[in-house]
Amino acid sequence: MTPMLSVAIGATLVMYALAMLIALVRLFRGPRAQDRVLAADFVYVVGTLVMLVLAIRYDSGMYFESALLMALFGFVSSVALAKFLLRGEVIE
To answer: Distance between the two ends of the chain, CA-based, in angstroms?
Structure first.
């Protein structure tokens, strides 16, 4: 790995950590439920991106598989939360 790539990966992880911290603040302080759901979606997207950056850093396929699972579960949870906010129930 080149030194420039190593620095870029480190900077990217720091920026993702800051983005996740800001989203977590919104998740806990959000005035409405919609704000909290949007923040939760953003947290799982940033978490998936962190896993992809780590896959590049460590040159491992396991991180790609875990990022795929995180995206899948994040999407399913977003759909369930949206349905709950619209109808008040998830299972009909």
So the answer is: 52
Q: Which structure tokens are listed for 6?
A: 């190593």
pTM over 0.90: no
| 90 residue type, one letter | V
DSSP state at residue 89: -
Between 3.40.50, 1.10.150, 2.30.140, 1.10.287, what CATH number should domain 3-87 receive? 1.10.287
Residues 50, 53, 56, CA angle at the centre, nearest 5°? Answer: 150
> How far, in whole angstroms, is CA 29 from its chain's centroid?
18
Ordered by start, the domain boundaries in the chain are 3-87
pLDDT in tens, the chain (92 residues): 799 999 999 999 999 999 999 999 999 998 988 888 899 999 999 999 999 999 999 988 899 999 999 999 999 998 888 888 888 766 66
